[in-house]
Amino acid sequence: MKLRLLKDFLFNKISSLLLLCSFLAISLIFIILIYKSIPLLEYQNIGSILSQSVWSPLKGNFGFLPFIMGTAWVTIISLCFAVPLCLLTSIYLVEYAPDKLRKIVLPLINTLAALPSVLYGVWGVLFIVPLMGEYIAPLFGIVSSGYSVLSGGIVLAVMIFPIMISIIVEVLHTIPKELKSASLSLGATKWETIVKVNIKKAKPGIIAAIVLAISRALGETIAVLMVCGNIPKVPQSIFDAGYPIPALIANNFGEMMSIPLYDSALMFAALLLLIIILAFNLIARVVLNKLEKNHND
Amino acid sequence: MTNNINSRLRKEKIAKVIMQIAGFCIIGSLFLIVGIILYKGVPYLSWDMITETPKGGFYIGKSGGILNAILGSLYLASAATLLAIIIGIPISIYLNLYIKSDSIISRSAKLMFDVLYGIPSIVYGAIAFSIMIWLGIRASLLGGILTITLLTIPIVVRTVDELIKTIPEDLKNVTKSLGATRWESSLILLKYIKTGLFTAMLLAFGRAIGDVAGVLLTTGFSDNIPKYLDEPAATLPLAIFFQLSSPIPEVQGRAYASALILTCIILIIVICTHILTSKNNKQKI
Asked: Are A149 and A240 in contact (CB under 8 A)?
């Protein structure tokens, strides 16, 4: 009996220790990032770091605006493609699609989620970039290499399809049946019910799904790096090259050891990214957890 | 009035068609990605690619293969998955079976793992890299394994958490009422979600093998198959990335073939996961 209780006790201690360790790990991440960013923040005030557009580390200019704008452009473009497509697809899957179709489509979307980002990058380089450079840009009379924020946005859009669809589908499932039936029995068509009841009711959940997708898009590194062109200038049109924050970190880390402030600048970039993503994630998760709880009650 | 209802019904039909097109676009993008990689990769695929390591002049188009990267990735992903399972499953059991799953500690810890799941791997990579420099360790297989483990722990914790939710409350109560300790009860419950655990493992493995940003800085690259943990190791996604940026067509072709190999590995994982989950629908994730 003693031995059994001892085992129980040991497991209790070990697993709570593991939990504590993972909590310490996330605190450590923050401490290191903040500690490493301090030199840059002492050198330049935070307002000018975020608003200046000149990036030349060798001369001591650390303007983050091109990267912030690069990230903003690709993220917004990806949302323009992903939000309508995902919303419509999710509604179709939940409300209209026959069971058989749903059973085929959902695994395929899971497959899309499982593809590593480097494969999206390869696809972008082989397909989207030439498509943009040779066909789409000339349509508008613009000369572009194809390595642009638009290409980045499209690749990102495909990458965030799965997360958006899976969450929106779950949210739509939580809509009480009574509400739908009430609307239908009053003579509304199914589509009218969807627009006026389902979507209205599911709005917080849908927004949470979009926010989660945004935070996924913000952190995506390699695929975007491969197709965006990586020129540290504020993009002026969708066919211009951009330089998102994660790409900046991935491209320059490891080469900046000789310039102390450069190291600090990249760590600041990581901190910026982390804070934005954590905030987005936290908001979205709290909203979704609340919805799930309401649904279960 | 009839006119009105007709136009309303027409609207519904149009909406339905648009929705079908949207769905088609999304599913189409999957086939487009796999199709293009297949189309570009197959001509360059050869037996040498998967059985040989890079020989002299490999990166200017001479003979050799990417066995180093395939094995490097498999070592890295297996070790990281194993570690993540060893750390993640106890945490999940603790959060659900040792302390009450709706207590404040449990709820906030789960929220923490949800949020950790969202941290991009480049941030993990950058931090691991600075720690490694600080400790004076060079890029190595071990560094990569530890970074990727951090990345996969949240996946394991969250998936196992979902699995434990599917266990019938009765089973939990029965084991306890028969006098089992929490530890013994956990072992029985783990047996109940066995297939699900395997799925969680595959999910973690898939994420681990595909990650680039985390290994870019921490694992380095090497033409040799790693023998020890402190050696730098090549990984498949990184091999694709490097070869693709080469201006030599032959090397680029190898990048396509490498992408095809990675796609196959991922598809195998996806299919295994699908078979496992559909076999045991109760434990769907």
From this structure: yes
